[in-house]
Specification:
alpha+beta, elongated, 3 domains, single chain, Lipocalin, 493 residues, 10 helices, 43% helix, 20 strands
Length: 493
């Protein structure tokens, strides 16, 4: 069989190694030549400590170039990078010096900029950089921290060493155990109260959330109102600024007062005159001086003002009402009308003067004597009007009134409720021996300011078939309303 000697095997192994080495050298040379065909970019770092020439330039862990040169410029490290020709970098690209691990070699890391921005061209500088971590400084700080920790541990060792230190530790542990036991007892004994507090807090937050949700629109309106108010305040401040500017320029009365010496002198003279007049008043000279300093004059004036005030109060209490009331008698299929003038000199006293239009007319009685026999007859004048003349007095919610009701003597009582919006009335009049009295009961409710609704039963115990249920309305105006109506009503020409 064919066999190789040991020398031949060694020689063959060396030959294969040389071939592999030559191949790797060619490949590395090709990469170097490829980088030479790229373009250069410059970076200015505060420090390039540990960074070597021909160090790797990477983006996201992928090598895209090499460090071509490192020099000193303006007290900083000027680094020139050779970037592969197929790699484009934006103008806001960031450069930073990184380290592989803690003790590994350093390289330049590039962070691409905003997509769509313009690209850097050959020879331009990367303006944005990140400061690299200084390992020596960090190690120095760690050393200082270690020294501080060593000092703390030494202090603890001195405090806690020996019998006294052991007693202190035991005391601390005992206090901690007692504290936790007391806290546990407090929590257990107040467990229900804590649960109630938590439940109340939950309900409160729920209510607040619901209120905020329900009033979201109102909150928006409030914010809009605040914005409008702020805009109005800006306008106000601008107007004040303009006014202040005008005053500073001597414009207007106030500006002339501030800037014009003549105006200031006139004002000083006026003030001097006022001071002279005031001095005369204090000395009791003149009518005003006597009025101020003479007690009898002041007393007479006060009495006069008191009488005038009393007269004005009476005038303010005096009120006048004009009202119309229409009642439809359902059983008679006819209407009855009232026109009343109510004069109220006091809050609890009033007078009523009015006329009544009754569909039956006015009843007249006549005594006729024939052959010594006197006979009383009744006649109804349908065109005749009845009249009212009453005086009334109010006691809280009850009103008593009396006088002439529908041309006959009578009395009435009213009861007010619902802040005087509802009135219940009862009247009795036209008393006679040959017929039953005229009794009337009704109610009146204020529907609007001047409009009232009425309903009731008229002459409900009549023995002459005059009883009837009625319903209607009333219109009532006060003297102030009448003044307004009279002044606003156009007068025909």
């Amino acid at each position: 069989m064919f066999s190789l000697s040991s020398e031949a095997k060694v020689g063959l192994f060396v030959l294969v190694g040389l071939i592999v080495l030559a191949y790797m050298s060619v490949q590395i040379g090709k990469q170097g030549l490829g980088l030479k065909r790229g373009y250069t970019l410059d970076v200015l770092f505060d420090s390039a400590a540990g960074l070597d020439r021909d160090a790797s330039v990477q983006i996201a862990g992928v090598e895209v170039g090499r460090v071509e040169s490192i020099s000193l410029k303006e007290g900083k490290a000027f680094v020139r990078l050779r970037i592969a020709p197929n790699v484009n970098l934006e103008k806001d690209t960031i450069a930073s010096i990184k380290t592989h691990g803690i003790l590994g070699e350093k390289y330049v890391e590039l962070y691409p900029g905003t997509p769509g921005e313009a690209y850097l061209t050959a020879g331009e500088r990367i303006s944005r950089t990140e400061r690299q971590t200084d390992i020596d400084r960090m190690l120095n700080q760690l050393s200082l921290i270690a020294d501080d920790i060593r000092g703390v541990t030494s202090s603890l060792n001195r405090v806690l060493s020996g019998q006294s230190g052991e007693e202190k530790i035991n005391s601390i542990l005992t206090n901690t155990r007692d504290l936790t036991r007391n806290l546990n007892d407090v929590i257990v004994s107040n467990e229900a109260a804590l649960h109630a507090a938590l439940e109340n807090t939950r309900q409160l937050t729920g209510n607040l959330n619901r209120i905020v949700s329900q009033n979201d629109e109102k909150v928006g309106q409030v914010m809009e109102t605040l914005k409008s108010a702020s805009r109005e305040m800006e306008k106000t401040f601008a107007a004040l600024s303009e006014i202040t500017g005008g005053v500073n320029r001597g414009e207007g009365t106030l500006g002339q007062l501030v800037k014009d010496k003549t105006t200031a002198e006139k004002l000083n003279k006026t003030l001097a005159s006022l001071e002279e007049v005031t001095q005369k008043i204090n000395e009791g000279r003149g009518s005003i001086g006597k009025l101020v300093n003479d007690d009898e004059t002041v007393r007479n004036l006060n009495e006069g003002l008191t009488g005038l005030n009393r007269y004005v109060n009476k005038a303010e209490q005096f009120r006048t009402f004009l009202s119309y009331r229409g009642e439809f008698l359902f059983d008679k299929s006819d209407a009855k009308s009232y026109l009343d003038l109510r004069i109220q000199p006091k809050e609890d006293k009033f007078y009523i003067i009015g006329i009544v239009s009754d569909p039956r007319g006015r009843r007249n009685t006549k005594d006729v004597t024939v052959d010594g026999v006197t006979t009383r007859t009744e006649e109804w004048d349908r065109d005749g009007l009845l009249f009212n003349a009453q005086i009334g007095k109010r006691y809280r919610d009850i009103v008593l009134r009396g006088g002439i009701l529908e041309s006959t003597g009578g009395v009435g009582i009213d009861y007010f409720a619902l802040n005087d919006r509802l009135k219940l009335s009862f009247e009795a009049f036209d008393f006679g021996s040959d017929r039953r009295a005229h009794l009337k009961a009704g109610a009146e409710y204020q529907l609007f300011k001047h409009l009232y609704l009425t309903a009731g039963w008229d002459d409900f115990i009549s023995d002459q078939d005059n009883r009837s249920i009625y319903g209607g309305f009333a219109i009532r105006f006060e003297d102030d309303d009448l003044k307004y109506l009279l002044t606003t009503t156009p007068i025909p020409k």
